[in-house]
Design a protein that fits this description.
Jelly Rolls; alpha+beta; single chain; 34% strand; 8-stranded antiparallel beta sheet; disordered C terminus; 2 helices
Length: 249
């Protein structure tokens, strides 16, 4: 009995070390990167391949929304459906979703139980596009801004979002934080993601579109973003080439 008591601390220590090593290995295999709040000015997320795992989880600074504005810039060459911004709640997988539906060539907005579609956009491949989506819970109206052009307003869903949300880039949530479909994954680059708990004015949205001065998101702020990368997603510098001066001797 004495021998057993003397061996337990050593055995327990080895067991704890083994568990820690397995957890560390699991994190490496999953490709999870824990990040502190970062200023991503001049940076972009690169999603280099279709998967049903790789994504970026964004951590909002606050929960509970009676209105939402979400803006982002993205570029892709996909010729299929893909999610551009996915916010889910325990009740609604598509709590607030911006989605490109390729067959009908339209941007779809989902809020809670409702959805609307907007067609007619020149969604060119291999071209950076700026997209903003606004929604007000009182009127239930949603509106899309695409490269500076506003859509009409349509009714989608009324009632505030009161439950805890999970916000992802790169995947469409078919459950609260999971059930990803590789055929709806985003492949390309994404940048300048902001979210507000109110509707930006048309002038503020135009300033965002034109890369001018606008109030940074008070829920998600690209210049102070709290996020985690899961899987093969890269943080890269955006190309910002300036024309060279020509000197005539």
């Amino acid at each position: 009995m004495t021998g057993e008591k003397n061996l337990r601390p050593f055995t327990d220590s080895k067991a704890r070390q083994s568990i820690k090593m397995k957890l560390l290995l699991l994190l490496v295999v999953l490709g999870t990167v824990s990040a502190e709040v970062q200023d991503l000015s001049g940076k972009m997320f690169t999603f280099p391949q279709p998967t049903n795992t790789a994504h970026v989880r964004l951590n909002p600074t606050k929960q509970g929304y009676s209105a939402i504005t979400v803006c982002h810039r993205s570029v892709t060459d996909l010729k299929r459906d893909h999610a551009l911004f996915s916010l889910s709640t325990p009740t609604y997988d598509n709590g607030f979703l911006t989605f490109w539906q390729n067959q009908n060539q339209e941007i779809q907005s989902y809020v809670g139980t409702g959805s609307v579609a907007y067609g007619g956009w020149d969604y060119k491949p291999n071209t950076w596009h700026s997209i903003c989506t606004t929604w007000d819970s009182v009127t239930g109206l949603v509106q899309i801004w695409f490269d500076g052009k506003p859509s009409i307003r349509k009714f989608v869903h009324s009632g505030a979002i009161t439950q805890t949300v999970i916000v992802l880039l790169g995947q469409d949530q078919d459950s609260h934080g999971g059930r990803f479909d590789i055929n709806q994954s985003f492949v390309g680059m994404m940048s300048d993601v902001h979210m507000w708990d109110y509707i930006l004015s048309p002038c503020e949205i135009q300033n965002y579109m034109n890369k001018g001065s606008f109030p940074p998101g008070n829920v998600l702020n690209w210049k102070a973003l709290d996020f985690q990368i899961i899987g093969n997603v890269l943080i890269e510098n955006q190309a910002d080439c300036q024309p060279q001066c020509m000197f005539i001797g």
